Amino acid sequence: MARDLEEQLVKYLTDAHAMEVQALAQMRAAPRIAGDAKLADAFSAHLAETERHEQLVRERLDAHGASPSRLEDLLGALSGKGFVLFARFNPDTPGKLATHAFSYEHLELATYDLLERVAQRAHDEETARVARTIRAEEDQMSRRLSALWDVSAAASGEDVGAYLADAHALEAQSVELLKRGRKIAGETELARLFEEHLAESEEHKRLIEARGETSRLKDAALRLGALNWGGFFASQRDTPAKLAAFAYAFEHLEIAGYEHLRRLGDPEATALADRILPEERAAAEKLYAAFEPALNASLDAVVSA
Ligand SMILES: [Fe+2]
Ligand SMILES: [Fe+2]
Ligand SMILES: [Fe+2]
């Protein structure tokens, strides 16, 4: 029914808006953590873009008679959503900042990708056009960041052990995400992808354990242990599309982490990162290809024909 689809479109717009509100806070804080002028400039440029994204999405919500409340964005609408997990990473070095931002840009890219598809189904050409425009700028920002890995790795001053420990903690979280996601995805291509990458992630975790110092690996795991997958999945249960988008962003967290690890001048660490990176990239690409079927499954579940 058209009204169900309209409701879904407003939901996707509301999520995009809440995501931009959080992005604004991140972009304002980022130049102070960047530790390098080029990296700081990339964030400043994207701050202006992000301000425009927030406004454009707000206008589309207005057009649908659904104005967002600022407070709701900051408190209610955020709770349990994927980007709350991002807020907990709390980047405090240039390397972590670039890693976090690279992943967040992919969460945004995925969100606008899905929004455009939902808008097209609802025959809302203007929202589809806005989504496409913003998506291109999120993509551009992620490319700015990936062109600066050398800079963010050098500015961080963190050693191989620190990156190994973070990578290990991420792989452990990835294993959790994939195990739970596999159940939610049901009998779908998405579930098969999760299964496949679960086996790879467990192997990555073992490879890092063979290299890292146990005590540092444990510390990093504790720091990230606050990620609440339970709350996340409780709110995402009926949306394979959002699960695919979030997993896609998570892969980019790992990709950026390994991109830094391979640039620290430690041949063994570089070899390890080069062994793992292609599998992370392939997993991300396959997840992206699964957006369309995942969205179809999500909409079929709530939109009656
Ligand atoms: Fe944005
Ligand atoms: Fe962005
Ligand atoms: Fe991964």
Describe it for me?
This protein has 14 helices and no strands. The protein has helices at residues 2-33, 37-63, 70-74, 82-89, 94-121, 125-146, 149-156, 160-185, 189-209, 214-224, 229-236, 240-261, 267-289, 291-302. The longest helix is centred in the N-terminal third of the chain and has 32 residues, at 2-33. It is globular and about 55 Å long. One fe (ii) ion binds at residues 174, 197, 201, 251, 254, 280, 283.
Summary tags:
binds fe (ii) ion; 83% helix; Ferritin; 2 domains; 305 residues
Heteromolecules bound: fe (ii) ion
Number of DSSP-assigned strands: 0
Strand count, sense and barrel status of the largest sheet are: none
Q: Would you identify the regions where 5 or more consecutive residues have pLDDT less than 50?
A: none
The assembly state of the depicted protein chains is: single chain
Assess the beta-strand content as a share of residues. Answer: under 5%
Order of helices and strands: HHHHHHHHHHHHHH
